[in-house]
């Protein structure tokens, strides 16, 4: 007899599949798909697939006993080899603006949706395999994913969840037992790499690009169907569709996107490819490709080599680009609303909300009670200037800053050593050092005004300033070990990143700043879209 926590007890309710128009053609040849939200396509079987890692918490969230994930049957299901009864595999049709230009039809080129599970709490979780073979949307590519990019997506999406950043999740990471050819830097040096599949989970994987595609083809009836579906299933509190409801819906998307970017900025995450096809309608971080974590605080930094020229998707540009992406979504749903003034004011409101959220986020990162206009605006600006001028590790800076003590008599020479571990250079230029000392004194003065106990402030700061993030070089080390057949570092990182705000004895190595060797290493500081 199977338990209620077994694979066979998973309950499917495939709303996307059942409610939206399907492509009548059933084959996985690359092609333009007209007037359909998705195409039915079976994942490719991988009889030699094997489990690398799974997320216990994600399994529990789905209502699965984690021991089920260690069975051969689990591997067969989540490698796409033997889908479970109740699964109805399909790839969705979407378009998108890539690097600022309309790219036409894109779609799930290497993602295959399995269906939606309703868990014991009544929550909907769509499951999707990434890397399980060609679909009608694969264009000129193969539909596979390699181990290196799959490790990065698996580890980072779960880590983001524990950092409290809205994100898609990951249930499992498997190798396919086959090799995939990749030219990592598009420079004519291709090599064979192990293939892998991540099973991702989210309430929905709908992107801005899903709506854009149908409007670009003047199929407004399908845009409307998709909007109505999205509201019914994911924004039910908005009620029955009407122009007012569509507008309110857009406003909510603006707010959740503002929150998402604020959270990225808080933890130092750079998405790297904020194309509109990589923007979730639910305000989740989606599509972990050439993302990176800020090491030295540099707003112009982008991990994506494809973006090195324009730096469109640099850390400091993310809020502005999100607004540009929201504008593309506004254009896509305009025919349903026909009120450009209202849509423009929602976009302006996004900016206002983001600015306030960023300010509040900085207030909490610095452990201040409230934002005070006269003093704090300047305090933040001066801090950003200092962090930029001196190569400073963002993550370590905020952790060490929390150790400042307000009742100790402020001697500038005592203050600087507090944050010294966050600097990349051993010696700091005298002018820069003076600038930082002045800032530290200003900051101390500001803390004295709040006059809170050090321990209370420190606790508050450490709850928003993570100690452990998936540093680019750590992910790269785990990948190299995995490619050599050892998965223990993946498992250890998984555990450490579950408690990113708490100091963990014996795990100091995961909180260290980037070593010199990693500064210009492929994979650790430079990434391409190739995955
Ligand atoms: P991304 O840059 O990962 O957001 O992908 C952009 C588009 O390219 C999406 O439509 C992907 O499905 C597609 N794509 C990326 N890599 C592959 C691949 N290996 N095979 C098929 N399609 C891909
Ligand atoms: Mg994508």
How is this structure best summarized?
The protein has helices at about 15-20, 55-60, 70-80, 145-160, 210-215, 220-235, 245-265, 320-335, 340-365, 375-390, 395-400, 410-420, 430-450, 455-460, 470-485, 490-495; strands spanning about 40, 50-55, 90, 95-100, 100-105, 110-120, 125-130, 170-180, 190-200, 270, 290-295. With about 525 residues, the protein is an alpha+beta fold. It folds into four domains: about 5-205, no CATH class; about 225-365; about 370-465, no CATH class; about 470-520, no CATH class.
Summary tags:
single chain; 531 residues; alpha+beta; 4 domains; 5-stranded antiparallel β-sheet; two-stranded antiparallel sheet; 16 helices; 11 strands; 40% helix; binds adenosine monophosphate; binds magnesium ion
H/E element order: HEEHHEEEEEHEEHHHEEHHHHHHHHH
- The whole-angstrom Rg is 24 Å
**The number of domains:** 4
Strand count, sense and barrel status of the largest sheet are: 5 strands, antiparallel
Mean pLDDT value: 96
What is the general shape?
globular
User: What structural class do you assign from the helix and strand content?
Assistant: alpha+beta
Distance from first to last alpha carbon: 41 Å
